[in-house]
Amino acid sequence: MGGREVTAWGVRAFAAGAWALVSCMVSATARPSEAAPAPRIEAAAYLLMEEATGQVLAAHNPHLALPPASTTKIMTAILVLESLAPDAEVVVGVRASVERSGATIGLEVGERRRVAELLHAMLMKSANDAAVALAEAVAGSVEAFVARMNLRARQLGARATHFVNPHGLHDPAHRSSAYDLALFAREAMRHELFVRIVRSEVYEYVGSAGAQRIVNSNRLLRQYAGADGVKTGWVGPSGPCLVGSASREGRRLIAVVLNAPHMYRDTARLLDHGFGGFALRRLASRGQVFGEHRVDRFGSVVRGAAASDVVRSIHRDAQVRTHVVFRADLRAPIDAGQTVGYVEFLADGRRIGSVDLVAAETLGRPSVFVMMWRWLLGLLGR
After folding, report:
1. How far apart are CA 139 and CA 137, in angstroms?
2. Is residue 367 flagged as an active site residue?
C-alpha cells in the first residue's frame, strides 16, 4: 500500500499540541458517475479485496471463523513455493499414498514427482494426496508442516485461522475466515507459478497410472470475463466455498465467499461491484510537493514532498481532498529528506490513507545579513 500511516511520533506530538495545522484542501475529484449499488450476496461470509492495495471494498462477516475446506490449499501452496524449487523431486511417502478421501491424483508410495506437477494436481484438481506429499517434502511430517502453516498465517495478519491439516478435509478445529483467505490469496498471487497454475483451465498430468487430463475445478475461469484464479472448496460442514480473482484494465480483485449456495453467482456479483463501482487512483507520487511552511520569522520556507507513492481504490464518484500538516517545531537547518509533516487523504470526508512529508530540498540557516535584511524589509512593510 503506498504511503505509511501517521507515524508514532506524529501521533504523540499531535496529541501534545505540538503540531500546527497548515491545511490546504486540494480538489482531486473523480469523474462523476453513479456509484455501484451493494450487491445481493447469499454467502454466510464474504469479502472483496483490491489486490494492489489490500483494501476491503465489500464484506459481510469477514472475520467469522468457518470451515475453509480446500481453500486451505492456498496456504499449503504458499509454503511449498517459499520452500521448494518447482523442479525439485518429491518422493511419495506412505501417508500420502493412503490418502484417498475426497479428490486425489492416485499417488503411490515411492513414486517420484516434481513439485510443479503436484502443485497442479493440488490446486486444479484439489488432490488431497498431493497436499500431503508436498507437506511432508517441506517439513518432514504433516504435523510440522501444519505448525508452519499457522505461523505463516499469523505473519500475514490472519487472526481467525487455525489449520489442522494441509488439505482442508473437515476437522472441527480447522477454521479460517473470508478476510484471512483473501490475505492468503493476495500473498500467493505474488508467486508467478501459482498464478500460472490457478488460471490454467486444463493440465496434462502423467502419473504412475498413466496420463490424466485435469480440468480446473474452478468454473469461474470459464464463466467470468477476466477470471484468473484462485481455488474452490467444499466439504459437508463448509458448504460451497470459493476464493476467486479476476483482472481487468490493470487491476486484480480477490473475492471470497464461504458457505455460498450460489458461489459463482455471488463471486461474479462481488467482482462486478468492484470493477464497476471503484477505480484505482494515484493520490500522490514520491517527490510530489503538497505545500510549504514558514519555519521562522525571517521568511525561511520548507516545502513538503511525499515520501512515497500513494495509490488507493476509491468509489468512482468520490470527492477526494488532501489535509496537509507540518510540524510546528521545524527550525532551520533542515536536511533534504527530513520528515517535516504528513498529508492525509479523505474521500467524502473519510480518511483513506496518509503519507509522510519530507523536505524537498535542504534549507540552511539564514545568515546574519539575510536575517537583518528581511527584518528591515518587514519594518518597511515590503
Report:
1. 6
2. no
